[in-house]
Amino acid sequence: MKLNYSPNLLAFAVTLACSTVSTSLLADADVQGRITDNRNSLLAGAQVSIPELKLRRTTGADGSFHFRQLPAGTYTLQVNYLGAAPQSQILVVADTQQRLADIKLLSASNSVEHIEVVGQSGAISKALNRQRNANGILTVASTDEMGQFPDSNVSEALQRLAGLSVERDQGEGRFVRVRGLAPDYNAVTYNGTQLAAPEAGRRAVALDVIPSDLLESVEVNKTLTPDMPAGSLGGTVEIKSLSAFDRSDDFYSATVEAGHNELQSKTSPKVSGVISKIMDLGGETDVFGVALAASFAERKFGSENVESGGAWDFEEGLEEFELRDYSISRERLGVALNLDYRPGNNNDYYLRTLYSRFSDTEERQGMIVELADPLFAGDTGEAVLIRSLKQREETQSISAFVLGTKQTSGDWQWQLEAGASKADEDTPFNIGAADFEREFDEGVGYSGSTILRLTAPAEAYLAEGYELKEVEMGDTYAKETERNIKFDLSREFTQSQGTMLLKSGAKFSQREKTADEDIWLFEDFEDLGVAALSMADYAGGQVDYGLGTMGQAVNSNDIYQLVNSLKRDDFVDEVESRINDYQVDEDISAAYFMAQWERDNWQLITGVRYEYEKRDAVGSRYDAINETFSANQVKNSEGYWLPAVVARYNLSEQSIVRAAFSTGLVRPNFEQLSPAFLLEEDDDELEAAFGNPELEALTSNNFDLGIEHYADKLGVLSAMLFYKQIDNFIYEADLAGRGEYADFAVAETYVNGGKADLYGIELNAVHKVSGFGNWLDNLLVSTNLTLTDSTADIEWFDDGTLFSREVALPSQSDKTANLSLGYETDVVSLRLAANYKSDYLAEVGDITDKEYDVYADDHMQVDFTSKWTVQPGMQLYFNVVNLNDEPYYAYTGRKPYNFQYEQYGRTFVLGLQITNW
Questions:
Q1: CA angle 829, 253, 119 (to 5 degrees)
Q2: Three-state SS sequence of 343-373
Q3: Which stretches make up the TonB-dependent receptor-like beta-barrel domain (predicted)?
Q4: How many CB atoms lie within 10 A of CB 805?
Q5: Mean pLDDT of 463-479
Q6: pLDDT(118) > 80
Q7: pLDDT digits (tens, 9 = 90+) for 91-104
Q8: CB-CB neighbours of 207 under 10 Å
Q9: DSSP-assigned letter for residue 669
Q10: How far is residue 839's CA from residue 631's CA, in Å, rounded to a whole number?
């Protein structure tokens, strides 16, 4: 792996870690142990402390804790875990290493019975314990908690958490927003390695590619510390894979299910399984772990759509709209294989792998209505109707591996890790649009506002009379690779004034994004001698369109047969095929230093990170006036300092105050950086459209302040204030009339703006009902509400005069909320969950006129899940997704002006899960 970097960065990081000298107590021995429940499940997030030494540890995913180099003596070992009674025992430290017997916790509600961390309560308990003991502001979804909702992918699982919401595609969660910030402003990592993004123009990772079955947990860090790589303003989504050592013994689980969508009469199967085993190796006991998870799901569903695309003249009416009917089949395949080797007590070697493939086959039958003159609802007139077909199979894949080691020697610990991720998106030869046209002199219009319904003569719905106009075919491929290597070094100092942890490290990464597109335009079929020009020659069955009538479908096989009979090379659209091809290479060198100090009820983390980036972007420039192509290459570099201070104060064992200042960094999207340049002339006026490789990264100053109160039995009340000041906000602008584009009529590109502000509050409450002595003690209530607001200024020139207006940040909802009601016994588990987000700015339609801004309407979806324990280790479940049949609606300026309306129907799932508890 070729990595270009300056050796001075590593020397700087290591020197800082080693240069601090402190007087430590006389250290004699290490003490290790594990915390478990009654089923021997390992409990992550438990707090283990030694009050006499003012030392505190939080158990990891494997339930373990480790106190290093303790002085000889007799101490008290205390354990605190939400849902369990506090526990303490005498600890005698001599001059030899100790491995304590597993500590099994008792139930908080019954001081005799041991706790069992299973079901809804157990899942929430695991998440809340990890959040309570986190250094910063952390939100966690464990694999158990994900299983309490009918969520098929990572994105949908995260929508249940405070401050998070999702952007959907065809009704399925796809991208995650953190605190109202768009998905491209958040980083996604897999065991510390940043995941590559499959889509050509984006950095945002489509999390619907990854099945939730493959994971141990997903954590969202909302505060950034210096040891975290830059790449986010809102938060970092950390996907953690399972390890065999996360279980106390061999483990397996298998799931089979079948689903059905209301809009499709087809069955959607799913099967998944997890197995882990701990083995002896090299004469040592229980030192080698293997964990394997696999998942396959096929979902067949449909959606029905009508949209104007913003084609409104508010004074005269609607100019154009389209009816769309989708038939969709999606397949998800995921595999994760993880290996761990832990010889001795201070050595850890590990391999983490992930492969996930998402295949989306989509056929869209459409009716495009081009009105000769704008019309209001109820009026009719002249129009061109176009029957349009789009058909494609798109496959996205994400793969990742992380190979590393952690080594401990006395108070020193170091970690060396190499990681790589690859993502691609492949859409082979596909029908971009096959259009059949017919003109109508009168009788065409529409009714309604939110749902536009076509008014047309009866013959508009027949295949006869429509003539083949053109067929556009496409073939696109995008790939992104990310490779990195990092080294971290830390040392802990135990003093009478508290415990100090110094940590330093360096990371070097290379990212490469390539995009390749080929377009063919087949037209003038009569001149080519094609006899079959009527839609009747290509017609299939009737379109089952629930928002009205569309008539017969266009048969995709017949269209493929037609274009394959022609010489493909004669129909290449050379400009479109070359102008969207590009490659962007980024090399990033980073180093950091941080210190973590703890004493009594205080914890303070401070430090700084430095990142230096070199970027090389290559694309094409096309001059339509002279009909010439030329290469366009831009190189640049930049360095960034990113300081942070994070503080935590324990008011009591139950109440915590958190405060943080951190700095974030997000690099521009690849579409924005693309060096493509298209120069044209229209009516003797110059027009240009181009990317901007000179864009600066977005940076932010982040402030957080909040308080959390945790109930001993199970529950939390929290409030978190946050404010983000964002510099170099990026938006699409027209530079015509200024600088080198003073003589242009149009010069569309992306530019850096000034400042944008985002602020809000997160409220979260979880409560396990208790104390009634009846069925009410089986209830669990979980709710959260996030209130946000934002402002950003965008600018444009008109006749040499600079104008500006204020907008909200795209994708930022003022309100996002979740409410779930659970009921659970030893046999039955029921959960009803509602997810809500208010309307938000989806896109700036016309930079000069806010009336054409596009807003996504508020959205509330209700889901239901139920489980019946047939026998220990076997559960039958029934889920309903989108129980309230919530559609998606977007409007132009004001709600009556449809931009897009789409409905998906309900999905029903029946499944069986077997686990060796």
A1: 25
A2: CCCCEEEEEEEEEEEEEEEEEEEEEEEEEEE
A3: 426-883
A4: 15
A5: 96
A6: no
A7: 998 878 888 888 98
A8: 26
A9: P
A10: 43
- DSSP state letters, 99-166: EPPPEEPBBSS-SSSBP---HHHHHHHHHHHHHHT-SS-EEEEEHHHHTTTT--BHHHHHTTSTTEEE
Burial (CB count <10 Å: 0-12, 13-18, 19+), residue 451: middle
Residue 642 to residue 122: CA distance in whole angstroms? 38
The helices-and-strands tally (H runs, E runs) of the chain is 7, 50
Side by side, the strands of the sheet bearing 73-80 are 55-58, 47-50, 73-80, 87-93
Residue type, 914: I
φ and ψ at 679, to 5 degrees? -110, 125
Separation CA 112–CA 91 (nearest Å)? 22
Q: Which two tokens stand for residue 887?
A: 């559609």
Q: How far is CA 429 from CA 130, 520, 528, in A?
A: 48, 10, 21
- Look up residue 293 and give its two tokens: 């998870």
| Residue-wise DSSP of 569-589 | GGGB-HHHHHHT-EEEEEEEE
> Residues 624-663: pLDDT tens digits?
888 899 999 999 999 999 999 999 999 988 899 999 999 9
- C-alpha 620/C-alpha 678 separation (Å) is 9
**CA-only gyration radius of the chain, Å:** 30
C-alpha 162/C-alpha 159 separation (Å) is 8
Q: Which domains does the chain have, with CATH numbers?
A: 244-915 (2.40.170.20)
Residues 629 and 579: their CA atoms lie apart, in Å, by 9
Reference 549, options 378, 888, 304, 379; nearest CA is 304
Render the burial of 340-372: b for 16+ CB within 10 Å, e for the rest: bbbeeebebebebbbbbbbbbebbbbbbbbbbe
Cα–Cα distances (Å) from 498 to 59, 301, 359, 598, 603, in that order, read 20, 59, 54, 6, 10
In angstroms, how far is CA 64 from the centroid of its own chain? Answer: 30
Is it the case that residue 475 has pLDDT exceeding 60?
Answer: yes
Burial group, residue 33, by CB count within 10 angstroms (0-12, 13-18, 19+)? buried
CA 419 vs. chain centroid, Å, equals 20
What is the residue type of 562?
L
Task: Show the tokens assigned to 378.
Answer: 């109820």
* CA–CA dist 699, 611 (Å, integer): 13
Identify the sign of the CA torsion 520, 524, 529, 535: positive
Is the Cβ–Cβ distance between 5 and 510 less than 8 Å? no
Rounded to whole angstroms, how far apart are CA atoms 317 and 890?
A: 18
Pairing mode of beta strands 164-169, 236-241: unpaired
Angle (CA) 627-632-638 rounded to 5° is: 160
Burial classification of residue 309, based on how many CB atoms lie within 10 Å of its CB (0-12 exposed, 13-18 middle, 19 or more buried): middle
Give the whole-angstrom CA distance, residue 797 versus residue 755. 19
Q: What is the DSSP letter of 461?
A: G
CA distance 390 to 905: 22
Beta strand 888-892 with 215-221 is: unpaired
More confident residue, 487 or 826: 487
**Residue 43 belongs to what H/E stretch?**
none
pLDDT of 24 above 70: no
Tokens in use for 874? 């076997």
